[in-house]
Amino acid sequence: MRKLLKPKWLFLFFWGIVVFASILILPNITTFVNEQTAMPQDATTSPKYQQQWGHGLTNSQSLTLVFNNSNGKLSKQQRQQISTTLAKLNRRADDYGINQLRTPTGMTNDRHLLRSNDGSTELALVAVQTSRADLSVIANQLNNAIAIADLNTSVTSTDLIYQQHVQQQRRNLLISMLVGSLLSLIILGLIFRSLLVPLLNLLCQMVTLITTISFITNARLAWHWPLTANALSLAGLISLILTSLLTWHFMYAYWQSSATTAPTTVSLKILTLQYRQWALVFIPLILITITLHWTAFISLAAAWAITVALGITLLAVPPLNYAFTAWLGDNLFWPGTTAWPTRPRNLWGQLSKFGYWQPALGSLAVALLLLPGLILANGQFADDNLRPWRQNQLSNAELGQQLVQAHFGTGATAPITITLRAPQNLTQQQSLQTIDHLTTKLRAVPNVAQVISVTQPTGQPLSNFYVNQQLATINIDLAGKLTSMAKLKSQLTTDQQSLEQAATSRHTKSVDQLSDRINDLAELNDQVQRQLQAIDTTLTTSAEAEPDLTKVNQQVTELDHLTDRMTTALNHVVTAQTTVATEAGHVDQRVHHVNQSLKQTVQPLTTLLASLKNTKTYLHDLAASQVGRSFYLPANAATNQAYQNSLFTNISSDLSMTQLTVALKSAPASAASRRTLQRLQAVTHDSLLATPLAHAKILTTGVTQQQHYQHTLIATHALRWLTLGLIIGIVVLWFGLRSLTFSLLMTACLTGVTLTSWGWTQLILTRWLQTGPLSSSVLLGSLMLLTLHWLMITTATGYCQSWLRHLEPAHLQQHFYTSGRFVCPVTMIELTYLLPLLLTTAPTLKGLALMSLIGITISNLIVPLGFSGWTRWANEPPAIATLWQHFRPSSTNR
Asked: Given 242, 300, 449, 694, which is the most exposed site by the fewest CB atoms within 10 A?
């Protein structure tokens, strides 16, 4: 029983219990990682406001269904097939968890938004009630459900592509880690000529990896510490690399120990020595990664996962190796019988010899190694992870993304969404006018392809709701009324003339009657005169002869008869004259009154016609002015289908929030898009000043906004915190090495190595291989691996410092030669894990491996070339004249 209480057994029991407990509490890694792989900001509506948005879209994921005919326009039969397929999908909405389905044949606005201009592609928008972890599953089900013969169909979204890329990257990383572990086992087996050492190393790797992953995942679930999938992967990779390095170092020290000493004593001594030697490697990294936990930049804040990996590896591997060596002793190295032979020379020692012989040339070689990469390095990053990795093997989601970009514009797959949250109702007249004015201003920004808002739901203004169009309609109506009133005026004039003519004709008739009476009277008068003449003739004749009384009497009687008729005719004339006079008075009075009335009617009508003409001219000029381009919602807007559909898609259910969707002409993560985003934000802020929406809250979301935020953090926040980390590293190295100069030199060279490696990586991948801008995680992950490698090789070089105070050339060169024997296996083990990553298709993993390999190579060259010469200068400061003589041409060569 006492044997079981010995440290070697306690270590085994303790870590066995830890691993068992870690396995029990370990969550589903696939589900966990999928939950962490959503983009930090959604491309359509921020989750913060999604619940307030309404319309049944709470906690839903957006997917785009793509239907494309690669041979040209969609035929009528193909459009019918698409409609039938979508209708069938809508009937099975509950099976797929569909909350909303927008199709080209649905709302009025969607017919314009979801059909390409060339007629070859149609889209459908689906809001699915699902978690991030199940998004790929739902997407595959939907892709099978919408399959149509002779058509390209796909399901895509930025979140889906991002998640699929992370999943594929994780698979590539796991394969690379397995290959790396297998290669490291082979290398350890060849170094120690043993079968047990590789197996024990594999056991240590399983312990550290399981414990690390379990601790990180449970810490994330319990305390909600910031975490990214890249940080989790990097923690696992570092855990495997360090486990192999610590196992090699422990076993190598045990192998070199005296065979006469008891295995337990030797193992305990090596355990103590290993903790003391590796403290300078682990302590700076642990302190730096813990400090970064409080940053706002999630990629840096997730560095606590590296702290966990470092801590667990340091706590687990040396005690387990101690337990194995104390338990098995020399049996560890079965079937080998001889130690790994050491070479009398190595490259590290030869380079240090050259650097010591010519410090100036060695420094020049260091500068030549660093300067080209430093010149090439720039701050271009693309963290969207949406670019296809291999153009000849596109996934279904990538195919859909490229179809949408080809037929709807480059920025259609990931537009910028500007959300306005106001305290008032946004459907009021002034609010709508402000939103429409903002939409017009945003559309005028360079590099903007389309802006969709509540007042412009199809990217184009609704003409019926603008003052100039409404005034044009009014002018048309006025023109018709002017024509009608002109006709009325003409008709009134004609009526006046007709009235006058009608009244005169009646009066003329009466006068004609009077004239007839007078004519009759005149004729009777003539007859009377003739009768008098006849009587006179008769009387005259009678004076000469005997009068004929009978004839005279007859004539007198006839005269009396004529006199009576004349009297009657005269009475008739008097009567007709009286009638004519009376009627003439009445007619004249009536015509006068009618003329006066017509004059009063025609004169205002003439004035009204002139006024209407002036009004028409004014409205025409007003329609052509700036006011004419203003949005105005008429009272009958409720009957307009396009406006009602726009309210549903662009206004929240509480009518207090709206969104403006901006599609750019450039790629979402490009530098041009980020500059356009800044311009859009400035225009939005300025356009809302002194308006009813001056106090509205503005939220900008989308891939471009995320990239802009990432770049802002990298340019400011990350730089400050990384500088703080370097300062912490300098202080720790200063206390550990007791040399501030050496600490500053180590930190400066590490910075130079990192930047020059970044520059060369950008040149090779971005410019030569055309993979596009690299992710910032490439720089940050490589920085961690390079820092780890740099601290290992430099602390191994500076660990023995007697030559720093008393220079002994032979001792210095021997020290560098010994350090080289340490650097070679370290580099080999690192290469076993980095070379498989270099062969993957994931740009992030390939960039991480390439940058780390370049940095490791440069580090292995500049340390022996520069440090040996700088050590000589530290003890024998060179005179300026001496340096000049090294570079000044010899007089014999002139």
From this structure: 694
Alpha carbon distances (Å) from 889 to 75, 489, 524, 882, 885: 81, 112, 162, 13, 8
Tokens of 498: 């007709």
* pLDDT at residue 844, as a whole number: 92
- Given this model, what pLDDT does residue 68 score? 94
425 burial (CB, 10 Å; 0-12 / 13-18 / 19+) is: exposed
Structural contact between residues 173 and 426, judged by C-beta atoms closer than 8 angstroms: no
pLDDT at residue 888, rounded to an integer: 45
Query: How is the chain split among helix, strand and coil, in percent rounded to 5?
Result: 70, 5, 20
List the end-to-end C-alpha distance of the chain, in Å, as a whole number: 87
Predicted model pTM: 0.81
Tally of CB atoms within 10 A around 126: 28
Distance between CA 397 and CA 405 in Å, rounded?
A: 12
Calculate the alpha carbon distances from 26 to 173, 217, 743 in Å. Answer: 20, 7, 40
State how far the Cα of 828 lies from the Cα of 840, in Å rounded to an integer: 19
* Rounded CA separation 503/147 (Å): 89
Which residues, other chains included, contact 572 with Cβ-Cβ below 8 Å and sequence gap of 6+?
A: 517, 520, 521
Q: What distance in Å separates the CA atoms of residue 741 and residue 792, rounded to the nearest whole number?
A: 18
Q: How far is CA 399 from CA 66, 156, 406, in A?
A: 9, 8, 10
Low-confidence residues in the chain, pLDDT < 50: 1, 4, 40-46, 881, 883-884, 887-894
128 neighbors 63 (Cβ within 8 angstroms): yes
DSSP H or E run through 452: strand 448-452
